[in-house]
Amino acid sequence: MDSSVDRIAQPWGARTPYGRHDAWPTRVDTHLKEGVSPGDVQRWVRAASILHSDGDAMDIAVKDGRMVGVRGRAEDRVNHGRLGPKDLFGWQANASSDRLTRPLVRQDGRLAETDWATAMDRIVSRSKGLLQEKGPGSIGFYTTGQLFLEEYYTLAVLARAGIGTNHLDGNTRLCTSTAAEALKESFGCDGQPGSYDDIDHADVIALFGHNLAETQPVQWMRVLDRLDGNDPPRLLCVDPRPTQVARRATVHLAPRLGTNVALLNALLHEIVRTGRVDHAYVEAHTVGFEELETRIKDCTPAWAADVCDVPAARIAEAAEILGSADRLLSTVLQGVYQSHQATAAAVQINNIHLIRGMLGRPGAGVLQMNGQPTAQNTRECGANGDLPGFRNWENDQHVADLAKVWNVEPKQIPHYAPPTHAMQMFRYAEQGSIRMLWISGTNPAVSLPELSRIRSLLSQERLFVVVQDLFLTETAQLADVVLPAATWGEKTGTFTNADRTVHLAEKAVEPPDGTKPDLDIFLDYAARMDFRDKDGGPLIPWHDPESAFEAWKRCSAGRPCDYTGLTYDKLRGPTGIQWPCNDDAPDGTERLYTDGISWAHPDTCETYGKDLVTGASDSVVEYRSLNPDGKAMIRAADYVPPHEGPSADHPFQLTTGRTIYHFHTRTKTGRAPQLDAAAPDVWVEVSVADAAERDLGEGDLVEVSTPRGALRGRVRVTGIRPGLLFVPFHYGYWDTPAGHGPDENTPGRAANEATVTDWDPVSKQPLFKTAAAALTLVERGDGRPAPAPTTTASAPSGTGGERVPATTGGPSATATQSATAIRPEDAAQSATALRNGREEGSQ
Ligand SMILES: Nc1nc2c(c(=O)[nH]1)N[C@H]1C(S)=C(S)[C@@H](COP(=O)(O)OP(=O)(O)OC[C@H]3O[C@@H](n4cnc5c(=O)[nH]c(N)nc54)[C@H](O)[C@@H]3O)O[C@H]1N2
Ligand SMILES: Nc1nc2c(c(=O)[nH]1)N[C@H]1C(S)=C(S)[C@@H](COP(=O)(O)OP(=O)(O)OC[C@H]3O[C@@H](n4cnc5c(=O)[nH]c(N)nc54)[C@H](O)[C@@H]3O)O[C@H]1N2
Ligand SMILES: [Mo]
């Protein structure tokens, strides 16, 4: 039966309950523009969602050469047809009237429109000049987790072997570098062990600092459907806010910010104390258990209760749930990765799985989650601070192998030091050793910590800044050259979600006139720079997405992320496919480590490891003696208190994060009317107790300040833990009167005005989730509520909360939900159109 639902008011739609070990029922979600009926749609074009890492498969509806809607794909393993609110409405931003359509160059201090040849000439002549005068180390590339695999791979080759710079990283540094690092520390190599299908089989699901309900709403629908079915799982939620996950949890722990390691050590202590260790697994597959046992000996729940401000009995209950699980699935995200002792904490979650033998079986898995839709590919392709194909920069064999793939001398690939991490690149730019910074698909003037510093650093005269984006973002406004890019829906490429599922997203419509796909921009630059291999041939011989994909397959061959069994045509089949996919596993691989640990051997591992507290690198000799046989490594870590704690001047803890309706700096979701209206401006979440004590109420305007800066927003009183403030980081300045940053008329509203320049010593991921702050009243509210959703973690609580009107979307926000799969005639028609590569939308 079809039904229509307001998907702003009901972000997760209707339930389709199912029992443990059953198949998750299909529910196809469709949203078409008002006035368009399914019969009007001329083509459905294959894609997957690009506004989170879930990888929900979808088809884009095309009519008269324009996108008119989207529909989830029933047959896909990831979403079984479902879509979240951002997927349903976010695509509208593509057609926004303020898309950049001409390159811009800075002339007499202002950005002026120009043509592509002039803009590219400027970049090329600056690059050549810098290479000659200062060498490759003067050029840096800061990319994203939102382009396609083919684009990252091309960028990695041109930066690492073409320019020969070590300064290439992604905003994945802000996002999933801890995930990657935690996997490397425990398993010797990046690569997600678990699978989303584990949700179907687990009897315990533990979410650590992961607001799954809002940030991967489709997998949350899956959890909700299990909770309503037979033999539902028990949920453990570790989050200081009353998220929807917390509300449905069997046990919810709301620890003091930055104390994850203390809590996890206590959970490990209890699991060991109560005899829940799988000694056979530990013996067969791990090293380091004795060390862990010693380190956590004194980490009792009573000790952790004090550190974390969580009742000891509750910690014991949580440990009991973890200890008694028959199939445990854990997920980890930014409440761990961006908080104090990020990697140390993430690794302790791996440790729970290792000592309990909870890996490589249906329902028993760990998901060190990704955030951005294509962050996995940034990592695989080495467009982050790693070498392509998870190769180890310290292993000469790996570098030689890569050099062979690229047909260059090994010395042409910088490997004298670890690839530079983004926070260091910005530091180099600030200090003047990096003189050209090429920023693609990211908006650091809103998303990096301590924005006043970032603005001033990007504005320096001596730094040549290139920005490649869809819009004139806060960052683009500071650039010397702005390149207008085409995006998802307008270009073709592949990307891989958090559980290693690869999808193909095809071009559905022509990009706006004047824009170019990122791949074409990188290829054009490489051609103009005339990068050569060692035989004098072009370094980058490919010319389009599919040939780039084929080139990447050769680079991935024999590596953990082996793509050799995939082709574009195969990806046009019914479902996305999980890597590794090769001759041994032609249909892909559901779970890693089903049969022991595969990549941790000293000769194959991606890293030799780091000290979890200091970040100091281990040597190959140390690694060989610790782990000669390539087992999983149980690495212990002592808790150390956060660097910045509350003080008399700054009595609150401040954390930042997301709401379900918006994506990052809102360049897309802020331009989708339904999403914009659901959460149009910043707010500040304050606990019931703190609001009462300071006489603050719903809608009051407050200032949140830290030693770095301040922001203003309206109060939403919620069930957040006392002493903690939460500010969503989505709100930059592009849609404010000033447009660029705080000035006299527009006081700051971006969360990152206040965050600190500090990072995890191991993963180098910035700590957006641990700071001390002051809170002051600026102005009483006028009776209007804060612009915060009521459907989510920001739901109002306490007196007055009931007067806040519920968040709804109205008629333009309805989507249909249908139990029927895609109509066969559609599928056949789309398949033919896709195979012929026809662009028939505009007839
Ligand atoms: N709607 C939406 N979805 C998205 C995105 C988006 O912008 N909007 N972005 C995507 C991306 S790139 C990412 S990285 C993911 C992020 O997805 P999540 O990590 O789920 O999102 P966050 O809101 O950043 O943080 C999650 C939770 O961490 C909690 N937290 C804060 N500090 C601590 C702490 O010290 N300890 C613990 N245990 N918890 C803490 C917060 O209360 C918050 O609820 O979402 C992806 N999906
Ligand atoms: N305080 C605080 N700060 C945070 C976080 C937090 O939780 N708290 N989270 C961090 C995390 S996890 C992340 S991932 C980052 C995200 O931070 P950003 O990456 O800076 O945020 P986005 O708004 O996604 O920026 C992406 C940019 O790429 C552009 N774009 C989109 N598609 C394309 C394309 O196809 N081609 C090109 N060339 N451009 C495109 C968009 O218009 C946009 O300007 O923020 C980080 N910052
Ligand atoms: Mo992210």
Automatic annotation (TrEMBL):
Residues 805-821 have a biased composition (Low complexity). The keyword Metal-binding applies. This is Nitrate reductase catalytic subunit. GO terms for biological process: nitrate assimilation. GO terms for molecular function: 4 iron, 4 sulfur cluster binding; metal ion binding; molybdopterin cofactor binding; oxidoreductase activity. Residues 1-21, 779-843 are annotated as: Disordered. Its cofactor is [4Fe-4S] cluster; Mo-bis(molybdopterin guanine dinucleotide). The keyword Transmembrane helix does not apply. Residues 42-98 form the 4Fe-4S Mo/W bis-MGD-type domain. Pfam families: Molybdopterin, Molydop_binding. Belongs to the prokaryotic molybdopterin-containing oxidoreductase family. NasA/NapA/NarB subfamily. Keywords: 4Fe-4S, Iron, Iron-sulfur, Metal-binding, Molybdenum, Nitrate assimilation, Oxidoreductase. InterPro entries: Asp_de-COase-like_dom_sf, CT_Nitrate-R-NapA-like, MoPterin_dinucl-bd_dom, Mopterin_OxRdtase, Mopterin_OxRdtase_4Fe-4S_dom, Mopterin_OxRdtase_prok_CS, Prok_molybdopt-oxidoreductase.
